[in-house]
TrEMBL record:
It comes from the Bacteria. Residues 6-143 form the N-acetylmuramoyl-L-alanine amidase domain. This is N-acetylmuramoyl-L-alanine amidase. Its EC number is 3.5.1.28.
């Protein structure tokens, strides 16, 4: 697929095999600002790819190298997420600059890129995550407007469970243990609940553990999540 090479100096060597794909939004006023920042040695941040709103793919760090996109984060027992992941920044102003839906031209470029990466790297659907999933206390991206369902229908993300949902009536502590088992860092419990809702129940992000949240999480922990894919 066509790409524009804009190398970033912000990378180092991996210490883990690649097993994760992390999706971000840029959270800056425009694409040029974001790309310039990711390429600036003073920023100490980078990503392997950037996808613009008009569908351009910018290649910034070689996949074999450890880009600096995840920061302090955790997923399914992995603390050095940068070493284990490929990071894609999706151009969007984000919550601070006028968060808006991701246009179809952008998704039409993002989907084949994700498909190519996960096929080559054998990344499982459960390890295709958002920045807020791996850093719930710090991050909100790619946010509640990101079309995870579109990726799930293409088997490029876990689906939101929708069928035969059953509330297991866990205590709040039981829910948190299940959320940790699923993969989240639960050091800040409410932040972890909000991140879970942002990903799997985006129409109501209130940080409250309710029957719907419990039922969705239970279904996700089953061997085959029942969703809309």
């Amino acid at each position: 697929m066509p790409m524009i090479d804009t190398p970033s100096p912000n990378f180092d060597e991996r210490s883990l095999p690649i097993s994760l794909l992390v999706l971000h939004y840029t959270g800056m006023p425009d694409a040029a600002s974001a790309i310039n920042w990711l390429a600036n040695p003073e920023s100490k941040v980078s990503a392997h790819y950037v996808v613009t709103e008009d569908g351009q793919i910018i290649h910034m760090v070689d996949e074999e190298k450890r880009a600096w996109h995840a920061g302090r984060s955790h997923w399914r027992g992995i603390d050095d997420v940068n070493s284990a992941s490929i990071g894609i920044e999706i151009v969007n102003p984000g919550h601070e600059w006028g968060y808006r839906p991701f246009p179809e031209t952008q998704m039409s470029a993002l989907v084949p890129l994700i498909h190519d990466i996960v096929q080559r790297r054998k990344i499982t659907r459960g390890n295709i995550v958002g920045h807020s999933d791996i850093a719930p206390a710090r991050k909100r991206d790619p946010g509640e407007l990101f079309p995870w369902g579109q990726l799930a229908r293409l088997r490029l993300a876990l689906p939101r469970p929708t069928k035969n949902l059953m509330d297991p009536h866990w205590s709040d502590g039981g829910f948190m243990l299940a959320l940790e088992r699923f993969g989240y860092d639960i050091a800040e419990p409410q932040a972890a609940v909000v991140a879970f809702q942002r990903r799997f129940r985006p129409e109501l992000i209130d940080g409250i553990i309710d029957g719907e949240c419990r039922a969705i999480l239970l279904a996700l922990l089953l061997p085959k999540p029942m969703g809309d894919d």
